Amino acid sequence: MSELRQDPTTREWVIIATERRRRPHEFGGAFLSKKENDRDIQEYSKDCPFCSGNEYLSPHETASYRTYGTSPNSKGWWVRSIPNKFPALSLNIENDASLYEGARGGVNTDFTGYFFPRATEVFRTKPGLGAHEVVIDTPKHNEKLPFFSDKQIQELFLMYRERYLDLHVNPKFKYIIIFKNNGANAGTSIAHSHSQIIATPIIPLTLRNNISQARFYYDEVGRCIFCDMIQSEIVDGRRIILQTDDFIVFHPFASTSPFETWIMPLYHEPCFSNASIDKIKALAIIVKKVINGMFNALNDPDYNFLFNNPPIADEKENYYHWSLRIIPRLTMKAGFEIGTGMSINTAIPEETAEFMRGF
Ligand SMILES: [Zn+2]
Ligand SMILES: [Zn+2]
Q1: Dihedral angle computed from the Cα positions of residues 305, 310, 312 and 316, in that order, rounded to the nearest 10 degrees
Q2: Which of 44, 118, 190, 241 has the most crowded Cβ, counting Cβ within 10 A?
Q3: Is residue 250 domain-shared with residue 142, that is, in the same domain?
Q4: Are 55 and 138 found together in one domain?
Q5: b/e per residue, 262-294, with b = 16+ CB within 10 A?
Q6: Cβ-contact 32, 183 below 8 angstroms
Q7: Residue 264 sits in which domain range?
Q8: Do 195 and 66 fall within a single domain?
């Protein structure tokens, strides 16, 4: 099991993930930047736990969209959700009490033999309680998201919604993040297209800050800061890439990295979980179009995308307004960013947005 630890100086929580930890010597030279040669990747890979036909290599599915009459955990699916085999957070912590009760000081071990220091007043901990699922985006090993059929990407986004709605009823969870890491520079070494969903027992401090700023504006001005931002973007126009009946796609005024792209519902909606099925289908098509544009404009960049939602308890609160954010990994965090938490963006959003309108 894993553990949440709070930095007493920033109050930011960190997940110490023992089950997925690497030994110190394994970090040397582990940075992967070389892309697999796409021509060498076939539709099926015999060792890949995400490929159709290899279901026995992965944990039992939590949900799947599959051909009528086929059995769970066998072929016949087109989107499949499974628990992460090496979860950052997990619900399987029945025995955690023995780890956390008793005198302060000293050490204890978890089931992997990892030594946990006991919590003190300065060093706060919590059990690593949560959920961590993988959504396998496609049964095909070599199919990339920009080339999914419209139906495939729509069903993927409907799976995100289904898993969110299933997890958010658990009172132990405070926040749910849905995200995708694509490519080694974005944090994954598995070529088979997949996404992840993590439910956490705390609200991360970065999000707390977003929330308190949005709440403050709502209380002071009486409107949603994000709605006002969207209106300002429309009036300015220079950073907008795309606008439909339901959504707006733009490079934010204060983008933290080059080509950072936000997709937001044009009309006020606090949380992704409130969106209708039709709206989610429309969103999926836009995400495909935007990532396809990046594929062509930036030569198949590594990227992350993630949903920015309010905490579960605030899903209906009007101070917040959800977005999906796509961040191509074109630069790396360096000393200044790590030391200050501030970003240095070497691109101008007005210029990158104009460039992307051509793709
Ligand atoms: Zn595969
Ligand atoms: Zn709004």
Answers
A1: -120
A2: 241
A3: no
A4: yes
A5: bbbbeeebbbbbebeeebebbbbebbbbbbbbb
A6: no
A7: 217-356
A8: yes
Q: Which ligand is nearest to the CA of 274?
A: 2
| Nearest-ligand number for the alpha carbon of 318 | 2
Give the distance (Å) from ligand 1 centre to CA of residue 48: 4
- For ligand 1, the distance from its centroid to the CA atom of residue 44, given in whole angstroms, is 6
pTM of the model: 0.88
Q: Which residue has the tokens 């439910």?
A: 199
Segment 81-126, tens digit of pLDDT: 999 988 889 887 654 444 444 333 444 554 455 555 567 778 888 8
- CA–centroid distance, 77 to ligand 1, in Å, is 13
pLDDT at 38: 64
Query: Over the stretch 180-238, which tens digit does the pLDDT of each residue have?
Result: 999 988 888 788 999 999 999 999 988 999 999 999 999 999 999 999 999 999 999 99
Question: How much distance in Å is there from the Cα of 141 to the middle of ligand 1?
Answer: 4
**CA of 264 relative to ligand 2 center, distance in Å:** 9
Does residue 137 sit in the same domain as residue 53? yes
Ligand nearest to the CA of residue 226, numbered in listed order? 2
Percent share of the chain, pLDDT over 90: 66
Ligand nearest to the CA of 214: 2
Q: Which ligand is nearest to the CA of 228?
A: 2
Residue 110 in tokens: 């978890």
Q: Which ligand is nearest to the CA of 57?
A: 1
Domains: count for the chain: 2
**Distance in Å from the first CA to the final CA of the chain:** 45
Do residue 132 and residue 193 come from a single domain? yes
Which of these three, 200, 233, 261, is where a domain ends? 200
Are 12 and 147 part of one and the same domain? yes
Do 138 and 46 share a structural domain? yes
Report CA(59)–ligand 1 centroid distance (Å): 15
